[in-house]
Design goal:
The protein is of the alpha+beta class and about 650 residues long. The protein has 3 domains: about 25-235, 2-Layer Sandwich (Heat Shock Protein 90); about 245-400, Ribosomal Protein S5, domain 2 (2-Layer Sandwich); about 420-555 and about 590-650, Rossmann fold (3-Layer(aba) Sandwich). Strands 1, 2, 5, 6, 7, 8, 9, 10 and 11 form a 9-stranded mixed beta sheet that branches. The chain has a 6-stranded mixed beta sheet with strand order 20-19-21-22-26-27, sandwiched between helices. Strands 12-13-16-14-15 form a 5-stranded mixed beta sheet, sandwiched between helices. The longest helix is centred in the middle third of the chain and has 34 residues, at about 385-420. The structure holds 3-[3-(1H-pyrrolo[2,3-b]pyridin-5-yl)phenyl]propanoic acid.
């Protein structure tokens, strides 16, 4: 959809006197996916982003200070802003229609209208509000400008194959006179149930995006109101510090290396650059990039330019200040970015979005522009903040030492594994099949549970790796320490595909990696540590959907002679209520170790009867803010996130 828009704007220049091709809305109704991506939940929310982006454009042009998004009681969505208001006068080429009606009923007619055309506009979502109209059963428009309040409505008419949508229900009408100073646009829309799989807006999805928009647009006030019964929620997002507040927010759950947050904003030819940074004591690199308000999770030219400048500025400063001696080798980019938390936001008039998910900025001009600006501003910041500079350079020097030590440790591990019997750790009970597609690896908490699991498994396709206690928290350890850890070495060589930047998914020995830990607090902690390890060191494996968590039951009971497993306390209460006369007796499993091989087979190992949950990263890759929460030090928050993203796949009703 981004490319559609880019092509159109490249070939056609729209202004009030020269709108030659105006397309009706039929194509949108016929192929919604072309315009909004999908007709699932993602596409539904796209409608909201589309309307909000128009208001944000108005804010970026300097005419709007507040936007309110309301989910109404009846499930419709209202977006209201105090911008200039969509023009209400007759359109020069279509004197019988108001400009507003043209904007809502024709494709690609929004945005660059009149002499108030915007320098930069929406990008990925910039398909125009007419698309929202085309996919709604009804849309109400309310405009305040030029001393009047104006209204008109649109609706989808007809049925079956002959639905026409976005049809004006009468002309734009002035309904009252108001002070000339009062201006703004309010759009209320009812997503068409005949288009979307479901029409339920998710307040969390909307709020996460609104908060990011508020961070990226310093000073803008964004209100959110959910008025649906049982879902009531009110939020206000507004940040005087813009990106500086964004970095503060991202680092909130971490320990910062220094208090101050560096930043700069600058205009360049054809755009704007906004960057803020701080370092924390973690080993994670957090670079969050945006182009025209869209999260570029695949990075791109702006991120490249920033990284290049950062590395060379740090090396230059480290040499100049004597923190790096003549005999020392240069710092690598990854050394400098260890523990960094930076937000890079650019705005440009014709963004090119590339990559698998169209979230990679392709404009090469942005690489040199960001590189040059960062070289100037960041280097100056280093010079002006010597104590901050010293602590981050020292951290980078530490990272470079760890990197060199890690390289040695990796070589050692590699050599050692080629000597061992096939390179496999002694405690792995491997399966006999060598076809990764049918093989499963169970990572089991504790040796005794490992023993029962061995008895319970199918030795042809199921392997068992018992782990001793809690594995190392990779979030708090440098790579060389991670690599020297015996439990992690056993994991890495069992899986067989390497670690970190060496990871090669083609070498995976099992298509399913299943974490099997007790259903108690300790078990939860072990699960979190393991999942964190996979996220950090084998992300590709998670992205490919190969990571699972088994859900062992807390209890078992018997109803009419049949053994029943009970997942948790809630399910136990449910069973008691539904069988008031049965006087049920429950056996409580204090852990996997208390289950016999048969019980373990039925609840965790046998594919027909076990409960398995896949760890899914899809949601996470959409929103960096969510990822940052995952990566935070707060294990509880991390678990909540992982659980909310877990997809239940086997033997669990969704
Ligand atoms: C076209 C031209 C002008 C403003 C807008 C559209 C506009 C659209 C939306 C959509 C939501 N809120 C909006 N606010 C403004 C410029 C009008 C002028 O020059 O006064």
């Amino acid at each position: 959809m981004a490319s559609t828009k880019t092509q159109k704007t490249n070939n056609t220049s729209y202004d009030a006197s020269n709108i030659t091709v105006l397309e009706g809305l039929d194509p949108v109704r016929k192929r919604p996916g072309m315009y909004i991506g999908s007709t699932g939940s993602q596409g539904l929310h796209h409608l909201v982003w589309e309307v909000v982006d128009n208001s944000i454009d108005e804010a970026m042009a300097g005419h709007c200070t507040r936007i309110d998004i309301t989910i109404n009681k009846d499930g419709s969505c209202r977006v209201s802003d105090n911008g200039r208001g969509i023009p209400v006068d007759p359109h020069p080429q279509y004197p019988k229609k108001s400009a507003a009606e043209i904007v809502l009923t024709t494709l690609h007619a929004g945005g660059k209208f009149g002499d108030g055309g915007y320098k930069v506009s929406g990008g990925l979502h910039g398909v125009g509000i007419s698309v929202v109209n085309a996919l709604s059963s009804r849309l109400d428009l309310h405009i305040e400008r030029d001393g009047g309040a104006y209204e008109m409505s649109f609706a989808a008419l007809g049925s079956g194959k002959s639905i026409r949508s976005g049809v004006a229900q009468g002309k734009l009408k002035k309904i009252s006179s108001i002070p000339k100073t009062r201006t703004g646009t309010t759009i209320t829309f009812w997503p068409d149930e005949r288009v979307f799989d479901e029409v339920n807006f998710k307040s969390q999805t909307i709020c996460e995006r609104l908060q990011i928009m508020a961070f990226l647009n310093k000073g803008l006030v964004i209100g959110f109101h959910d008025e649906r019964k049982g879902h009531e929620r009110e939020e206000t997002y507004s940040y005087k510090g813009g990106l500086v507040d964004f970095v503060k927010h991202l680092n909130a759950s971490k320990t910062a290396l220094f208090n101050s947050i560096g930043s700069f904003s600058t205009q360049v030819e054809d755009g704007e650059i906004d960057i803020a940074w701080q370092w924390n004591n973690s080993y994670h690199e957090g670079l969050y990039s945006f182009a025209n308000g869209i999260s570029t999770t695949e990075g791109g030219m702006h991120a490249e330019g920033f990284k290049r400048a950062l590395t060379s500025a740090c090396n230059k400063y480290a040499r100049q200040s004597g923190l790096l001696k003549e005999k020392d080798s240069n710092l690598f980019g990854e050394d400098v970015r260890e523990g960094m938390c930076a937000v890079v936001s650019v705005r440009l008039s014709e963004p090119q979005f590339e990559g698998q998910t169209k979230t990679k900025l392709g404009n090469t001009a942005m690489r040199s522009a960001v590189e040059k600006a960062t070289s100037d501003f960041f280097f100056t910041w280093l010079e002006q903040n010597p104590s901050e500079a010293k602590s981050l350079i020292n951290k980078a020097v530490g990272a470079s030492k760890a990197r060199k030590a890690a390289k040695q440790a990796k070589e050692l591990t590699r050599r050692k594994s080629s000597l061992d019997s096939g390179g496999l750790p002694g405690k792995l009970a491997d399966c006999s099949s060598k076809k990764a597609d049918e093989c499963e690896l169970f990572i089991v908490e504790g040796n005794s549970a490992g023993g029962s699991a061995k008895d319970a498994r199918n030795p042809k396709t199921q392997a068992i790796l018992p782990l001793r206690g809690k594995i190392l928290n990779v979030e708090r350890a440098p790579l060389d320490k991670i690599l020297k850890n015996a439990e992690i070495q056993a994991l890495v060589s069992s899986i067989g595909a390497g670690i970190g930047s060496d990871f090669d998914i083609e070498k995976l020995r099992y298509k399913k990696i299943i974490i099997l830990a007790d259903a108690d607090v300790d078990g939860g902690h072990i699960r979190t540590l393991l999942i964190t390890f996979f996220f950090r060191q084998m992300l590709e494996l998670v992205e490919a959907g190969c990571l699972y968590v088994a859900q062992p039951p807390l209890y078992s009971t018997e109803i009419k002679g049949e053994k029943i497993y009970v997942a948790d306390e809630a399910q136990r209460q449910d069973l008691i209520q539904k069988n008031p006369r049965a006087n049920l007796r429950f056996v409580r499993f204090k852990g996997l170790g208390e289950m016999d091989a048969k019980e373990l087979r039925e609840t965790a190992v046998n594919a027909q009867t076990r409960r398995l949950v896949r760890i899914d990263i899809d949601q996470a890759s959409i929103c960096d803010d969510v990822l940052s929460r995952l990566m935070g030090d707060d294990a509880g928050a991390r678990r909540a996130f992982i659980e909310s993203n877990a997809k239940e796949v086997e033997n669990i009703d969704i």
